[in-house]
Amino acid sequence: MSLPASTDNPWVRPWNPRPHARIQLLCLHPAGAGASFYQDWSAALPLDVELLAVQLPGRESRFVEPLLEDYEQAVAATYAALRPYLARPYALFGHSMGALLAYGVALAARRHGDPAPARLFVSGAAGPGVPRDNTGRPGWTDDELVAELVRLGGTPKEVLAHAELLNLLLPLLRADFTLCDSFEASPAFTVGAEPPLDCPVSILGGDEDERTAAELAHWSAVTSGGSTQRAFPGGHFFLRDPSGPAVRAAVAADLAARRDPKDRP
């Protein structure tokens, strides 16, 4: 299978291209964000890891494209866009909404006979089977959505204070929340509806996040390949500074643990 240049694929942003890296880390962003969410990560990872940030439609460089609001459709479209990259060793990382999509892509890869990820990283999201207590957010008023952004803490103050930027962000956020709500209607939400994955799963969370360690622990049931769970200081966006370096170090360590002996120096 020939591999297209990442720059030719609107779904993928290689912030720091490393075409000869040992492994690709395909990163899926949270609700309301885009590929730039991971821009600071790529240069901080080991040289044998190439970070490819997924860019969903309707944001940043794909602003004019229709937004995706259905979980199954979003998974199918994301998987189709990423499939050419799965011929090389890869791992999947997703935060919040991105964790749900990363899991769906891993299931789709198995369903279509593609290589499994070396590891699945799920961050800041309750595992399958845990009911979401924040469903219905797409129907909230603008003021309620802004209050939610403030509470979660992941939106720059400059955006919150800028009416025009908020007018651009809120429709995107409603669509992403609709997508997240539709996860519960997917077979992926029901533990046992899909056979377990066989890749290891790394579970990451913030010790001050509303997503508790017990809710995150449900991800351990999606694989027969074993799982690890870590908590870092911070809330829902714990993977940003000051915990960012520790999170990236943990990701790098887990990727190195899967290194084939022949690849070791």
Give the key terms.
single chain, 265 residues, alpha/beta, 7-stranded mixed β-sheet, 7 helices, 7 strands, disordered N terminus
Explain this structure to me?
Helix content is 30%, strand content 14%. The chain is of the alpha/beta class and 265 residues long. The protein has helices at residues 71-82, 97-111, 142-152, 157-160, 163-182, 213-216, 244-257; strands spanning 12-13, 23-28, 49-54, 90-95, 120-123, 201-206, 227-232. Strands 1-3-2-4-5-6-7 form a 7-stranded mixed beta sheet, with helices on both faces. It is globular. Helix 1 (71-82) packs across helix 2. It is built from 7 helices and 7 strands, in the order E-E-E-H-E-H-E-H-H-H-E-H-E-H.
The N- and C-terminal alpha carbons lie at a distance of 28 Å
Instruction: Work out the number of β strands.
Output: 7
Order of helices and strands: EEEHEHEHHHEHEH
Low-confidence stretches: 1-5, 260-265
pLDDT average, as an integer? Answer: 91
Largest sheet: 7 strands, mixed
Secondary structure tally, helices: 7
Helix-and-strand structural type: alpha/beta
Principal-axes geometry comes out as globular
Strand order of the largest sheet: 1-3-2-4-5-6-7
Rg over CA atoms, rounded to whole Å, is 17 Å
Strand content: 5-15%
